Fold each of these.
Amino acid sequence: MRVMKKMKHLFLAGSIALLLAACSTSGSSGTEKQTDGVENTAEELIVVRLSDATNLDPHFITDIPSANILYQKVYETLVRPDENFEIQPGLAKEWNVIDDTTWEFKLQEGVTFHDGTPFNADAVKATMDRLLDPAVGSPQREKFSMIEEIEIVDELTVRFHLSYPYAPLLSILASQEGSMISPTAITENPEALKENPIGTGPYTFEKWISGQEVSIVKNPDYWGEEAAVERVVFKVVPEDATRLAMIETGEAHINDQVPVTEIERIEASDTMELYRTEGLAVEYLGFNVEKEPFDDLRVRQAISHAIEREAIISGVYNDVGTLANSAMSPKVFGYSESSKPLAYDLNAAKKLLKEAGIEEGYKISLLTSDRKERINMAEVIQSQLKGIGIDVEIQVMEYGAFIEMTNNGEHEMFISGWGNATGDGDYNQYNLFHSSSHGPAGNSFYYTNPEVDQLIEQARQETDQEERKALYEKVLQIELDEAVYVPIRNYEHLAVSNKNVTGYWLNASNYLMIENVKITE
C-alpha cells in the first residue's frame, strides 16, 4: 500500500474501492422504499421477528438478529456503509492514512452517550481497549487483532496503529463489532451492557422483556438528524403465519425474517409489500470436524457427494437466492468463480463410507435453528442421506439455543449461514476457518489447518488486491476439498411491510435501516 495523506472520506483506490464495488446492493426491489413526500403520522414502529435477541453487548453479539436491533440505532460506528456499501462518515467526520500502518480519525463534535458521557478520543480508546483485552474474552477480538495501539492525539483526534497493513480496516470499523460504547458503562458496570446497551445513536434503549420484545425510544439529545419515529418495538413472534397476519392487518409494520414459502401470499396481498435485495451471506451444511465421525475426511466427503444442492435451491428456497460454490458469495471481495465443491455422486459417496467403515443405518445428528426453510432443508438432507445408508436425526432448536450449542461445540452436523458484515474476504475467512476463531468467533466447524491459517493471515496483510484474490481462491478450494462444509445458497434478503410503511431498507449484511422510515395511518 502506498503512503497516502489528507484523504477525507477515504476510498483507497487499490484496496477499498475494489471491495466496495464488489459489495454494492442490488436486487429486484433492492432500493429504499420511497417516502414520496408523505408525512409521518404514527409514533411507534413495530418490527416482528422469529427469534429473541441473545445478547445486547456488541463485543459479545455473535448473530445478526441481535445486532440488528442496535446497529446504527442505539450504537453507532466511526464510519458506516451507505446503501451501496460505500463507506461514509459516522462518529468520525474524516480520516487520513498517515502511513501503511497508521490511520487517523477526526471525530464529530458535541456528541454524547445516552448516559451523558462525552464521546471523544478517550471513548474510542476505552471501547477498543476493552475489545482487544484478552481478559475480557470478546469473541470479536480476533477481528481487530491487527490493531496494536490506539493513540489519543487530542480530544477529537485518534490514531489507530496497526501491526501490519490492513486494507479492509474501514469496513471492519463500519460493522456492528466497531460500535462505540460509553466508557462510563465500561468502567462502572460492563456486565450490564449485555442487557442495557449505552451508545450514541438516534435511539436509546428502553427495555428488554426476554422472549417477548426489545424496545428503543427516540434520543432527544441526538447529535445528528432526529429519529423518524418516537419508539421502535422488536416483537418476538415465532409463528410465520402470525407475523404475516400482523403485517397484513397493520398490527405490525415490518417483518425482516420472511419465509420463502410465503412470497406468493405476500405478492397477492393488497396490504403487504415485499422487499428483496442480494446479500453477502452464504448458507451451508457444516461439520464439526472434532466430533466423530466427522473427524474422518472420507465421511465428510461422502456426505458432500450425497447432497443434491440444486434440489434444495429449487425445492426448499423457491429459487430465492442462488447456488453457492463456496463460503463466499459473489458480492464479497475475494470470491472466485473457479471454486468447485465436490460433485453430486452417490457411488463415490457409498465407496468413501465403506472405506471409512461406516455401515448401513449409521446414525448422525443434524442441528438446525427453527426457521421454517432450514427445517425443510434438514428434511431434504435427511432424505438424501438415507440414499447412502445414513440415518439422520434432525434436532431443531430455538435460535438462541442453537447459537449456544454451536458456540460450545456441542453439535455434530449443522445447517447455518455466515452473514458477512463487511463485504471483505477477511471477515469471511478469518472468522469461519482460522484456528483462532473456534466457537463464538465464527468457526463452528472447529476446523484447524496450519496451511489455511497461513494463507488467511497472508491475505489479510497483502496490499495488492489481485494477490489477495489469488490467495483466497487457493484457500477456498482447500476448504472445499477437505469438505469442511457443503455450500448451499447465496442469500437474497427478504422483508415484508404493510403498505403504509415507507423509507426503510435492508443493507447487504441484512441490517434493517430505519432512519427515514415513515408510517401513515
Amino acid sequence: MRPEIIAVIGLIVIVALAALAPKLRLATPLVVVIVGLGVSLIPGVPPITIPSEWVLAVVLPPLLYSSAINVPLVDFRKNLGSITVLSVVLVFASAFIIGLGLWAIVPGIGFPAAIALGAVISPTDAVAATSIGKRLGLPPRLIATLEGESLVNDASALVLLRSATVAISGGVAFGGVVIDFFTSSVIAVAIGLVVGFLAVFVRSRLRDSVLNTALSFTIPFVAYLPTEVLNASGVLAVVVAGLYTGHHGARRFTAVTRLSERLNWRTINFLLENGVFLLMGLALKEIVTTAVVRDHGAASLDATGAILFGVLAALALLGIRFGFVAPLLFVQRWWANRRRTIGRPHESPVGMRGSVVLTWAGMRGVVTVAAAQSLPEGTPFRAQLILIAFTVAVVTLLGQGMTLPAVIRLSGVRGVDKAADEESFATLVDELREAGEETLRAEGVRLPSGEAVEPIVVERVRTDAQLRSESAWENAREADEDAGTPHRQYRELRLEVLKAERGALLDARSRGDYPSRVLARAQTMLDQEEARLYQAVADDDE
C-alpha cells in the first residue's frame, strides 16, 4: 500500500479514536496504542518501523515547543526545584541504577551500552497522565510538576544517551558526562533565549496572523538544529524558546495571533503525539521479530529475557521514582507549613497521597521508543535493548495509564475547587474592569488620534465591562448548575438568534443577491460571534 494512503488512513483512525476515547473514559494515547498493538498482531499486516531520526529531529521539537508555549512560566518557576530534581537527578539516578542492573545480569553487554538503555527508559511522557489528571481534578501543582518534568527530562536523558553511545566506541569516559551535561545545558539555554527573543521581536511586528503563525512553525527547528550542530541539547533549547515565547507573547502578540497560534499548535501537537503512539503500537511485531532473529542464545539475552527484564525495569522505575517523589513532597509540605507559621503566602501541600499519584503518573512514551531506535548499529544486543525499551513504554503507558484514574480516586487527592476558581475569576475580572474604567473617568475622553468620544459611547463601553463582571459573579454564586443565570440565558438565546441569521445568510447566498465578498464578510462576522458565545457557554459547563 502506498505511504500516502497509509498516512490518510492513520489520520482518520486517530481522529476516530480521539472521539471514542472520552466515551471509554480513557486518555486518547492509551486507546491509540492499544489499537496499534492489536493491528500489528493481525496476520499479513506489513512490518512497521519508526525512523528514530524523524522522531528526534522532526517530531520531537514541535511537540516540546507546543507544550512549552502553553506552560505558564510562573508555574514553571514556582516548581523549578521539584522539576530539576525529577528531570535531572532522577533521570541520572534511574539510568545508572537500571544500567548497573542490566550490566550485572547480562554478561558481555558492556557498561556503556547498559547505561545507554537506562538513559533511554528514564524520561517520562506526561501526555496521558496530565490529560487524565486535569479531567479528574488533580492539584494544579502536581499538573505543573508533571508538565515541567516531561519538558526538561528529555534533554537530560538524551545528553546522557549521547555520552553513553560515544563511550560504546571508546570515545569518552563517563567522568566527562557531568561536564558534558553542564556545557550542553548552558549552550542550549543561551541559544533558546536568543531564538525566543528574536522570535517575539519579529513576530510582534507582523500583524497578519497567518504569516505570524506560519513563522512560529519554524521556531522549534531554528532553536533545535544549530544547538545540535554545536553538540548541545537541542530539545532544551526548544523548551527555553517555547517558555520565553509563551510568556512574552501574552504582552507582545495580538489577540488574533494568540488565538490562531493556540488552535494551530494544539492541532499539530494532537496529530504528532498520537501519530507516534499509533506507530508505537504498530511497531510491536517488527521489534519482537527482530529481537528473536538476533537472539544471542539462552545464556545471554534472548527476546523472552528482554521482555522479562523490561517488565522488571518498569517496576524498578516505579520504586526509584517513589524514592525521589516522597521525600520531595515531604520537603514541600515542610516548607509550606513553615511559610504558614510566618504568615507568608503558600500553596497547600499535597502530602503522601500526592506522592503516590505523582509516582504512578511517571509513564514512558514517545522519547523512549525513538531514543531506543537511535542506538548505533554496533551497540551490543541492540535489538534486545530496543525490545526492553519498548516493553517498558508499553507496560507503563498501559498498566499505569489505565489504572491511574483508579489510583487518583483511591488516593482522594483533589485540588480544583470549582466554586473557589469561579470566585477568583470574578475577582480578577473586577480588578481588570477597574483598570479599564480608569480610561473612562477622565473628562472629555479622547481616542489616541485625539478625536473626542461622545458620552453615549463612553457609557456603552462602561456597560459592556460591567456586564462582563456581573456575568462572572453570577457564575461564582450559582448553586444550582441546572438553573440558568440571566447572562447564560442571554448567550444561549443569542446563539438561537445567530442560527436564524445564518439561515437568512444562506438564503441570500442561494438567491445571488449580494457579491461573494460581502457574503464572506457577513459569514466571518457571524462565525466570530458564534465562536465567542460557544466558548463562554463551554466555560460555564466545565
Amino acid sequence: MIVIVHHDNKIVKVLHNAQVIDGYLNQPLTETFIVLASAYPDSLILWCHQSCEAHINYEGLTEVFHHQRILASFYIGSHYLPEQIGYVERSYYLKINKQVTYPTWLMSSMVGGVHASVVNTVTSILPKSNPFDYYLNSLAKHGMTQGLFCYSSPDLLKENVSISYQQETASISILYQFVKQHYKWVWVYFLTLAICVYEKRLPIVALLKSLFFKQQHLEFNLGKLKIHSLKQVNTTSTVDVIIPTIGRKQYLYDVLMDLSKQTLLPKTVVIVEQNPEPNSTSELDYLATQDWPFNIKHTFTHQTGVCNARNIALSQVESEWALLGDDDNRFEADLIASLLEAVTKYGVTVGTTVYLQPHETQTYLNTAQTSIFGAGNSLIKSELIKQVQFDKRYEFNYGEDNDFGMQLRHLGEDVIYFANIKITHLKAPFGGYRTKVKQLWEDDLTQPKPSPTIYLLHSTYFTSNQLQGYQLLLGLKSYKRGHEKNPFKFVKQFKVKWQKSAEWSQKLTQSINA
C-alpha cells in the first residue's frame, strides 16, 4: 500500500507499507501520484491531506476497496466543483448522503484511494497537468460510465473524528472548462443561461475561455482489470420472484414457463393479481391446474396499483434474494444463475439487467453503476426489503421505480447495471393502466408541469441547482414545442404551471400521510 500525504498540492511524505520513501518532498501532487502508480502497479494508492493522516481507517479499507476497480474519496463539506455544476448534471450523483457509502463521481483530495492498475490504465490518455482535485473528478466522471466504481465513503476515516480541512473550490472558469471537456458543447451555453436566469450575472470571460477547450472522448479500457470482490454477499443462492399482474393471463403464463426452465430454479414465485371489478375472481386457473417446479404464492386483490401490488409481493419474500419481475417479460434459462453470479462477482446487493423491447437495440455495453432502477428487472438482497418500499405517492403515475432505487442508495447500497444479462420487455398492449385513474389535479384549470410525481422525485433527490437546471431545460423544450411564442407570456404561464406542480407534489404527501 502507498499512502501520499499532501498539503497545498505538494507532497509532504510518501509511505510504502508504513515506511517513508525519500525523494518526493514538495513534488507536485498529480504528477507524483501517477509516477507512484507506475512504480507500484500492484498496490492500492491512498492519498490524504496531512490533517487526515492520523485518522485513516486502515482496518476498513478492505471493505471500501473490495475489488480492483473502485475509486473512493470522502469530504464532509462542499466539493471541489462549484454547486453550479448542478445546472448541467442530470444524474442523482450530486446530492450525496455523507452518512453512507454513496455512488458519485464527485471526488475529493482530502482522503481517498484507487488501485494503481486503474491509474496506469488511463495515464496515457487522461491529462496530468491539472490540479489533483480536477484530475480525480475527471477520472471519476469519465470512468463511471465505463465500469469504474466511484463512491463517497465515510469508512475511509475513523468514526467521530474532527478534521480541520477546507476543500479548495474551483473557480468559475475551471467549472466552465470541466463542463466543456466532460459534456456536449451546448452545455456551456446552457450553463451561462442558467447563471444569467438564476444568479443575474453573465460570466462571459469564463465562457470565452472555455471555447479553447475541446470535449474529451476518452476510452479507458477498464475491462482488462478483472473483478473478484472480497465481499461475501451470497450464501444460499435462493431466490423468490415477485410479479404484479393485471389482465395478462397468457403473458404471465409465458413468464412462468421461462421460470420453470431456469438452470437455477426460484424457490417461490409471488404473484399479486389485480382486478378492479367488484365481483371478479382470479383468471389464473393454471396456477392450480398445472404442476410447477417452485412454490407459488398467489394474492388476488380488487385494489389496483403497481406500488401496492409490489409491496404486497415483497412482504411475502422469504428467500435470500428477490427478483423483481413483470408479467410481460421473456428471458433465457440462465437468467437467475447469471444474476447471482454477477452480484457475487461484484460484491453488490442490487443489480439490474438490460431491459429492451424486441425492436430496440442495446447501445450501452458496459457493466457499470447506474442512476436508474428497473422495478421489473432487478435482483435485490431480501434483507433490504425490510427498510424500503414502493412509495404510494407515485401510484398511477411515474417515478416509483427510480424512487425505490434511491431509497436503496440512501441505505448505502449501489445499483449495478449488468450489460451482459438481458430481459426482453414485451410491453404487452393490454393490462397495466387499463382502468382510467383520475389524477388529483385533473380538474385543475391550470395543469401542472412537470407531472407532480416527477417534481416530487427531482425535488427530493436533486440539489437546488439541479432542480433549477431541470426547470430551465423543461421550459426551453416546452417553449419550442408549444403554441405560445410570446416569450414573456410563456414564462409567466410556465411559472404558474411549475408552481402548481410543486403544490400538488406537497398535496400528494399530505394525502398519503392523512
